[in-house]
Amino acid sequence: MEPVEIRQGTSPVILGLPHTGTHVPEAIAARLNARGLELADTDWHIHTLYDGLLDDATSVRATFHRYCVDANRDPAGASLYPGQNTTGLVPETDFDGVQIWKDGEAPTPADVEARRAAFHAPYHAALADEIARVKAIHGVAILYDCHSIRSHIPFLFAGKLPDFNIGTNGGETCHALIQQAAVEVCGGAQGYSCVLNGRFKGGWTTRHYGRPSDNVHAIQMELAQSTHLASESAPFAYDAAKAAPLRAHLKTLLTRLERLALDGKL
């Protein structure tokens, strides 16, 4: 299986999808324990949730699972959140802090490097190419990085996660109008909660590509999975009825971001 799926469009908006993939090569799967094989930390159905929301948007989707290598981590292995619990470039535990590899089968430094080259690098090469292509068309590109996570994970954060978690690394990764639009749409969504640069301030992808001074803007959206799944436990089924109002708000947001770029306001 190819490590990345690309759907090219001509919109200035690019959807990044680093964590929806569930493919694990046989040799890697053989080293996972029963807990790891559950693949529980997938961003379940996020590609379905965003499908069709913005006509002609480009999407770049990793097909491999984050337990192979995490496409939203620094390839050098540096922590995104120093001093806080998190998972690494190749996770050793799941989001609950539980071991996912069989005894003696945890990835070695050589394994990490091999997986970085086989999965992480091709994904980001494709993403960088699409950003450059879209920027060449419009003079500007907006990378909207799509994520989701369970709303209760004590190992990673206290209490219940808000529904919309907007990450711009303190406003550094995008124009202020992009951040403002996200806060207005998500904060005004009736029945939903929202936070800006809370527990999730934007992963490596957002921080790496977001260069407003170079007309490349990046924003991360971490959605609580309670907003669109029937249950935040196996089998992690998609709930289309629950997702419908969420999709309407996301469509409004993506349309606003696209219009900011097309109107030359960035």
Model description:
There is one protein chain. The chain is an alpha/beta fold. The protein has seven helices and seven strands, in the order ββαααβαββαβαβα. It has a seven-stranded mixed sheet with strand order 1-3-2-4-7-5-6, sandwiched between helices. Strand 5, helix 5 and strand 6 form a beta-alpha-beta unit. Helix 5 packs antiparallel against helix 7 (240-262). The termini are far apart.
Main sheet overview: 7 strands, mixed
Alpha plus pi helix count? 7
What's the total number of strands?
Answer: 7
Q: Numbering strands along the chain, what is their spatial order in the largest sheet? A: 1-3-2-4-7-5-6
Instruction: For the record, give the distance between the C-alpha atoms at the N and C termini, rounded to a whole number.
Output: 38 Å
Spell the H/E element sequence: EEHHHEHEEHEHEH
Radius of gyration: 18 Å
Given the helix and strand composition, which structural class is it? Answer: alpha/beta
| Oligomeric state of the chains in view | single chain
Helix fraction, binned, reads 25-40%
Short précis:
By secondary structure, the protein is α/β, with parallel strands linked by helices.
What's the SSE blueprint?
Blueprint: E1 4-7, E2 13-17, H1 26-29, H2 34-37, H3 46-50, E3 58-62, H4 109-138, E4 141-149, E5 164-167, H5 176-187, E6 194-196, H6 204-209, E7 216-224, H7 240-262
Parallel strand pairs: 2-3, 2-4, 4-7, 5-6
Antiparallel strand pairs: 1-3, 5-7
Helix pairs in contact: 5-7
